[in-house]
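Before surveying the methods themselves, it helps to consider a single example record, giving the amino acid sequence and backbone structure tokens:
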Amino acid sequence: MKRIFFRNRAIELAGNIHLPNGFDANKSYAALVLATPGSSVKEQVGAIYAMKMADQGFVTLTFDPSYQGESGGEPRNLEDPSVRVEDIRCAMDFLMTLPFIDELRVGLLGICAGGGYAVNAALTDRRFKAIGTVVANDIGRTFRDIQTRDELLEMLEEIGRQRTEEARGAEQRFDPWIPDSMKVAEAVGITDPELLEAVTFYRESRFRHPNSSNRLLFTSYIHLLGFDAFNLVPELLTQPLQVIVGGRRGNTAQYENGKSLFDLSPATEKDFFIVEGASHYDLYYKSDYVNQAIERLTQFYSKHLHSKYDISLMPKALNAN
């Protein structure tokens, strides 16, 4: 792994490049840009998939979004879909400066909200030759659908009031993405299994990371609530598409979002793969499920990025980490 930095206009982004075993800078490699979930930093879900796909022969790049983690940008903890999408394009720009990357063999992999961002970036950036998603979510639709129309309209009013107060000098408001601990979740009466799984992964497992603040700038919602990741998919998403979902459905709607994406895409080569028994968060880090996703992704990218990697060796290469 190598630490790298690149820019999205005035903002410097921090990333990690994961290189295949036996990497030779004089050779030409297929590569993947990874788009991570909302609130997640490059050392978490992105690192898991980046390392495993590097083990399969691909150069992989994962990075902290603008305004988050080790990347720059103010205000901190802003989640702006248009900037997240441009971050992905800028990551591609960076890869194009590396002599060992074959510019005709670059794919894109998005996980959770990163899946929606990846799809949105690929609509107009044709440099991405193959698109993969794991438990993809359209973050805008997800936030719209978890409340009634009246609640949504009231929230928009509240965002407006907050922006006005901040314009007049008030402090910025930051809300937690999820409860900060299982103890907090239990104290407020949360019982949704998937939300509790999220708390376990992000806040109480070995994947907790100090750069993941679990804070969202409240006024981010003015950007999030108007975002539609899959708009124009029927018109523009013609690249080969691999959609991976968990067979155990829940309130994240990852299965429904993935099926919608698959159905909307006009791609002539597309695949919908269900990891039976897996929930949304199981596909973040549990080896039994993640390795199934990696196997399918390796087959997909090897075919469509014309990798020289021998996929028949792949099951032996996967490990339980």
Summary: Residues 174 and 218 are 5 Å apart (CA to CA).
